[in-house]
Every structure is written in C-alpha cells, then in structure tokens.
Design a protein that fits this description.
The chain is an alpha/beta fold. Helix content is about 35%, strand content about 20%. The strands form 2 sheets. A 6-stranded mixed beta sheet has the order 6-7-8-3-9-10, with helices on both faces. Strand 4 and strand 5 form a beta hairpin. The protein is globular and about 50 Å long. The chain starts with 9 loop residues before the first helix and ends with a helix. Bound molecules: adenosine-5'-diphosphate and magnesium ion (MG). Adenosine-5'-diphosphate binds next to strand 2 and helix 2. This is Amino acid ABC transporter ATP-binding protein.
C-alpha cells in the first residue's frame, strides 16, 4: 500500500497521477434471491485494484453469494458488474459470450480446494490453461512449475491431492487460480477447513499475493487475517453492506452490529 507522496519509480513519474489508479471492479445493485429469501439486497461496491478487500459478516449474511455473483457461479436477479471495460448487465438473460467475458476476469479459490483427485498438482494447475486458454502444454507446464514454486510446492508437482496435506492442497488450488491470470482473485474462506498450522501456510501465501498488489477479495472469519492483510474491510449483514472502510475503522467502530461480530468471532 504505497502512500501517495512516496518516491516514485522513474517510469511511473512520467504518468499523470490519475493514470496510476486503475478503475475499480464495480458492483451495482446486485440482487439475489433464493425463493422468498433475499440473499443480496441490491449491493453497491467498488473493489479497488491492487488491494486486498476482506468481506466479513455473520454466517448467512451473503458473503459467499456475493463472491459467486462476481464470477456468475450464481446468476444475480438484477445488477451490473464493471471490470473497467464498461458496465455489464448481469441480471437478466446473458449470452454465452457475455458469461465467458465476465468469468475471464476472476477466479475463485474455494474452502474445500476442489482439486481434481485424479490429476497431479502439475496436472491440476495446467488443465485450464491448456484446455480453456489454449496455451501450449510445454509453456503451461513451465509456468505451472513456477507457480508451484511460488506457493512453496516446487517438490510436489507430481504428487496427487490425496497425498498432500490440506494446506498443500489449498496452495495448489491457489497456483491453479493464478495460472488463469485473472484480474481479480476471489477466496471463499480459504483457510477455514484447515488446522491453524496449515492455515498459516496459506495465509503466508495470501500475504505474499497481497504484497504484490494483486486484486484480492477474501471472505474469512479470521480477524487476525483482516488485521494483517486487509487494505479494506467490508462488513455484510442480511445481504446489505453495513460498513465499508479501513481495517482501523472496522476494528474501532462502535456500531453494535460490528461490536457483536467482533466479540463473537474473537471469543
Ligand atoms: P455466508 O457466505 O455469508 O454465510 P451465503 O451467501 O452462503 O452466506 O448465504 C446467504 C443466504 O442465502 C443464507 O440465508 C443462505 O441460506 C442462502 N443461500 C445461499 N445459497 C443458497 C442456495 N443455493 N439455495 C437456497 N438458499 C441459499
Ligand atoms: Mg459462505
């Protein structure tokens, strides 16, 4: 998180200030119902580029649904997404092309890793680049090995998920997401299926990604993660955003809903 008056690299100094701040991912009026239940009640949110946004909120507040709406794993009932190339209505019918266009922008990392059990770590990381992005296999494997090294698994390329710890599996899943080179990485409780020690390995990888100024959106119950890694905290309740600000603002807010949540989670 560079401050505005920090010394600039020579190349950046040639750019006007505004050009250095890319357009955020913008969500407008995202609404999602399941039968009579309103899971998201018209959410407006700007997700800053190059920053880590942490989504917090009680169970059932709509965090997963919101992440899933960003890459259309759930189809919103109404709303628009804008990845910086113009607003895309995502409420009604969408052409397959529009759906693909939206999905190319983001990749999700799930709580339960969702690796293919019959493929090695390398096979998991190369599958989509080869099949979907049509990257030549040799090139995809070379980048996959780099990504596995980046998440601390250089020596596990040939291991199957069943022979990896949960923390290792989740790091393979992160390498797999990175291989898609998405603008935005979405994480839905990436450490909550893991013992604390294994969770710490995954948090270290996430902290590295955050330090590289990638655009991350992370749903978590971990206040220590939010404290350590978040640039911004968004608090949801009943499908609405209750608070959107700095971690400092979240941790010091006297709003009874936030206080209650902090007390329960920290207990
Ligand atoms: P969170 O991730 O914050 O715990 P969710 O986004 O999973 O919350 O869920 C928000 C609300 O929507 C909850 O009441 C949940 O029961 C409901 N919900 C989520 N997914 C479905 C679904 N596929 N079918 C029916 N209800 C759902
Ligand atoms: Mg959830």
């Amino acid at each position: 998180s560079a401050s505005a008056d920090a010394p600039r690299a020579t190349g950046a100094a040639l750019q006007p200030d505004r050009a250095a701040v890319p357009a955020p991912l913008t969500l407008r009026g995202i609404r999602k119902t399941f039968g009579s239940l309103t899971a998201l009640d018209g959410v407006d949110l700007d997700i800053p580029r190059g920053r880590t946004t942490v989504l917090l909120g009680p169970s059932g507040s709509g965090k997963s649904t919101l992440l899933r709406c960003i890459n259309l794993l759930e189809r919103p009932d109404a709303g628009e997404l804008d990845f910086g190339d113009g607003p895309i209505p995502v409420g009604g019918r969408m052409s397959d092309r529009t759906v693909r266009r939206v999905r190319e922008h983001s990749t999700m990392v799930f709580q339960q890793f969702n690796l293919f059990p019959h493929l090695t770590a390398l096979g998991n990381v190369t599958l989509a680049p080869v099949e979907q992005r049509r990257i030549p296999r040799a090139q995809a494997e070379a980048s996959a090995r780099e990504l596995l090294a980046k998440v601390g698994l250089a020596d596990k390329a040939d291991a199957y998920p069943g022979n990896l710890s949960g923390g290792q599996q989740q790091r393979v899943a992160i390498a797999r997401a990175l291989a898609m080179e998405p603008d935005v990485l979405l994480f839905d409780e990436p450490t909550s299926a893991l013992d604390p020690e294994l969770a710490a390995e995954v948090v270290a990888v996430l902290a590295d990604l955050a330090a590289e100024n990638r655009t991350l959106v992370v749903v978590t119950h971990s206040l220590s993660f939010a404290r350590r890694v978040a640039d911004r905290v968004v608090f949801l309740e009943d499908g609405r955003i209750v608070q959107d600000g700095t971690p400092e603002e979240f941790f010091t807010s006297e709003d009874p809903r936030l206080r209650r949540f902090r007390d329960v989670v920290e207990a």
